Amino acid sequence: MAGILDKFRLDGKVAIVTGSERGLGQGYATALAQAGADIVGVTYPSSAPETAAAVAAAGRRYVHVQANLMSTESVARIVETAVREFGRIDILVNNAGIILRNDAVNFTEKEWDDVMNVNLKTVFFLCQAVARQMIEQKSGGSIINVASMLSFQGGIRVPSYTASKSGVKGITMLMANEWAKHGIRVNAIAPGYMATDNTAPLRADEQRSSEILARIPAGRWGTPEDVGGAAVFLASSASEYVTGYTMAVDGGWLAR
Fold it and tell me: How far apart are CA 154 and CA 109, in angstroms?
């Protein structure tokens, strides 16, 4: 019988990570590689050289796919590239996402559509395409979507982001229900307030930043390294009885 630490190993696994060029996406890709997985990184427009170097340093292979996830046109190509290069797909981390801020009373249709297209529509159809490949392989797999604190809360001035991340939590449960019979587990990670590009405006606002930090029991903004362990857990056989769940990695924010 394998020891518990062995169950966290991802040797021989192939993971697709979207938005792998920086921030949390780089954290997910690096952690999965350190656990033994080869990485297909999906970015736009950067080629993610830093992530490629981190994966190589872990002794794993990194393949880059440039794709604008504002539309679903690249979905088939992403899957085809992974299968061509590695012969299989075992893990998908749907990390890529955007956020646009505006008062709800002034929010435009384009601001709504752009966020929903990247954060929810393409997420669903990439999950679908990867699930079809996993079903064909008859080997199961793990899909990890990236949700948010705003999958649980309303937030302010980000109506399309809140809607999209609430949707991510919902479709994660739905897909888990439908695909469990194929050995496919579908979960989500809900990062708290992380020091990434998306939160740069908040961190630059001294008053808003201090208000946020005052509510985080851990007393700090999260980092890309903070989400890596959750990704490895959900990707590995250590979590083989976990599906349909959205795991908060938030420094205690939701407990407050």
Answer: 19
Active-site positions read 161
Task: Report whether the peptide linkage leading into residue 159 is cis, meaning its omega lies within 30 degrees of zero.
Answer: no
Distance CA 229, CA 48 (A): 21
Determine how many CB atoms are found less than 10 A away from the CB of residue 108: 11
Its pTM stands at: 0.96
Q: Which helix (H) or strand (E) holds 38?
A: strand 38-43
Sign, CA torsion 162/166/172/175: negative
Whether 76 contacts 67, CB under 8 Å: no
For residue range 73-118, what is the model confidence (pLDDT) as tens digits?
999 999 999 999 999 999 999 999 999 999 999 999 999 999 999 9
Tokens of 14: 């192939």
**Under 8 Å between Cβ of 167 and 159:** no
CATH architecture of the domain formed by 5-249: 3-Layer(aba) Sandwich (3.40)
CA separation for the pair 54, 161 (Å, rounded)? 30
